[in-house]
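TEACHING EXERCISE
Course module: macromolecular assemblies
Task: Read the component lines below, then compare them to the predicted structure of the full complex.
Student: A.B.
Group: 4
Components provided:
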Amino acid sequence: MTAPTLRPGGRSARVQESIHSAVRQLLEEQDRASVTVPQIAARAGVTPSTIYRRWGDVSALLADVALARMQPDNEPANTGSLHGDVRAWAEQYLDEMSSEPGRNMLYDVQAALKPSYCATIIGGQLQTILDRYPDQPKPSVDRLINLIAAPTVFRILFAEAPLEVEQLHRLIEIALNQ
Amino acid sequence: MTAPTLRPGGRSARVQESIHSAVRQLLEEQDRASVTVPQIAARAGVTPSTIYRRWGDVSALLADVALARMQPDNEPANTGSLHGDVRAWAEQYLDEMSSEPGRNMLYDVQAALKPSYCATIIGGQLQTILDRYPDQPKPSVDRLINLIAAPTVFRILFAEAPLEVEQLHRLIEIALNQ
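Instructor-supplied answer key:
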């Protein structure tokens, strides 16, 4: 949701980072429903209108922060095998999404302008893994998303309990087994 | 979310039905964000406090209506084969969930007290199908939810476009192929 012309380190990027950081701080101190634009502005040292101009309202800003958080810090772990990499990625994904901040992120991102960014980020991660093994038969990224990421998230949002790790492992077998 | 002691046709059930019906009417006339408890009460011919007492707030009521709508009107179609039944069910599910009312329902239900009711309803439908074929090897309900329902919903909520019907058919093959 960052404007494409934004130079990293430019003034606009610094303002954005201070606003994001104010949001992250406030979310640690108080309930998300009670966070307001004037509060965020005061914490970030900007005027409320800077925030309204850029995001429109507080829910778009929360969603933007959630999306930025979702950007993984690192490449997926490289374990030396396709199976091992997918398994390490899937276990971390299950772990992160079923945590309290992960669940909140899933809700915020759905309120965002581009929730499809989710599948783009996940797809990028999985493609990175697949590219490591050019010489072996591989599933498509789509197949991995449908058979691993989708049940992980669906069970968190709509079922009594998240996937068990053994269920996750079985799904990985199915996804990698063509 | 109906209290288990509620007698169908009892006074309480009639009040609930008139409130649900008022919500459904209002949602056809105006944006969901603008629907208020006093409005619903006026339309249903009850006092606002009846609604507050029972649901607490408007979002819990909207979620309850969404859940009630999700209760399928009919048994899953009986095509004479396990494969055909699962396919008919999955196509209808994809169709309904990716419609505008379906998407709204997915959001409302997540705001509900018991979004896990979703998996319970879906599970019941799929179990009905499986029970029709006692003498053949069958996948578990869990497997069908993970491999068919989960990717359907995940792609609606978090990807650029819903599943294509051919993708859905491939997922059904995977789910039924053990």
